[in-house]
Amino acid sequence: MNLSTVSMGDKDKGDREMKKFTKEEKSWAFYDWGNSAYSIIITTAVFPLFYKSAATEAGVSLSDSTAYLGYTIAIFTFILAMIGPIMGTIADYEGMKKKFFTGFFLLGTVSTAMLAFIPSDNWLLLLICYTFAALGATGSNLFYDAFIVDVTTEKRMNNVSAFGYGLGYIGSTIPFILSIAVILLATNEVIPVSVINASRIAFLITAVWWIVFSIPLLRNVHQRYYIEREPSPVAQSFKRLGKTVREIRQYRALFLFLIAYFFYIDGVGTIISMSTAYGTDLGLSSTSLLIVLFATQVVAAPFAILYGRLSERFTGKKMLYVGICVYIVVCIYAFFLETITDFWILAMLVATSQGGIQALSRSYFGKLVPKENSNEFFGFYNIFGKFAAILGPLLVAVTSQVTGNSSMGVFSLVVLFIIGLFILSRVPKPKPHAPVDEVAPE
């Protein structure tokens, strides 16, 4: 075979073409654009307030309503963490990945839309519907993440993953602005809609946005890597999953990375989830917190893409080091936080690395997994990500209570980032004889 038939001019042209995202890559990334509306409107901004109002109206105490929401989140998180690898292993069979993705996508979008039609005083039914919506959103994300091995090459994976996160941050701001605008106009009686119905409109906006921008993925993304179907696929899937666990030593690089990821992503998630409570302690109003949240989304978008571009020059692993170090600075800076200006600075620092560290973690893991078993391994990725949401909040809570200082609680997260950074530095390149021998992420 003659491999030296490409002229330098042709090579330069090919390099320029490779800088462009393919139809499959863009179709895959736009799911982030659509799905991220759920994350900000349902998970973070509108639904929690809507639910709390419904529970209060029904006579549920503030502490009990918060506890019930916490139990609900814990339940669906545990369910997904447990079934993730099992579903992923089955989805590795030919043609199954898209079916699993579509099933969870429909569960999430339909349940999100149904939130708009539940009576405002039925807080229990709201939580049940929210559980199904959350299962659909997080379940579809498992298979969406796993599709990254099908839509792009290892060389382009960092950039494509970062592009997806960047689109997600940008895309989420548009329905967020629309939803908040409707709610504020209703609050000030500018439009003849009650605040409750304005929130319901926000739920419908989320569902429609999510559905519309998922169409490219449903049409253009296909499972390229798979295992041939065999008799008794469910039973065989359990056997393959058991074999993977038994032969874990052969995947040392992959599982060592997951341990590192468990620690540092726990710190990232804790800072994101507890930022509004921390801002409230500093005296920020609800309106100010929404503005900070919006600004964070806007700033995070270009920085997520920048991380992807820089990873091409400095490698994904080094950029993960940078992101973790930025978060260590954030934790230290939080210890000296005193004013609202300080909170803004802190939020912008988080925004510079929030998307980048998540995007490069996904692509780094995508390079390590055996492609034909990508769903199975992204199931483990899902487990580590979900259970990582436990240790950080617990550490912040205990430290804050013992010291009587919420700043000390945030500062304590430094421990998680340092442990994650150390373990990440120990992740080796896959050995030539390992199951992932064709992968060399760094």
UniProtKB/TrEMBL annotation:
Compartment annotation: Cell membrane
Record membrane topology: Multi-pass membrane protein
UniProt-listed InterPro entries: Atg22-like (IPR024671), ATG22/LtaA_families (IPR050495), MFS_dom (IPR020846), MFS_trans_sf (IPR036259)
Coiled-coil portions: none
Gene Ontology CC entries for this record: plasma membrane
MF terms in GO: transmembrane transporter activity
Transmembrane intervals: 28-51, 71-93, 100-118, 124-144, 165-186, 198-218, 253-275, 287-307, 319-337, 377-400, 406-424
Keywords on record: Membrane, Transmembrane, Transmembrane helix, Transport
Short name of any one Pfam family annotated for the protein: ATG22
Taxonomy, superkingdom: Bacteria
Residue stretches making up the Major facilitator superfamily (MFS) profile domain: 253-442
PANTHER family: AUTOPHAGY-RELATED PROTEIN 22
Name of the protein described by the UniProt record: Putative transporter
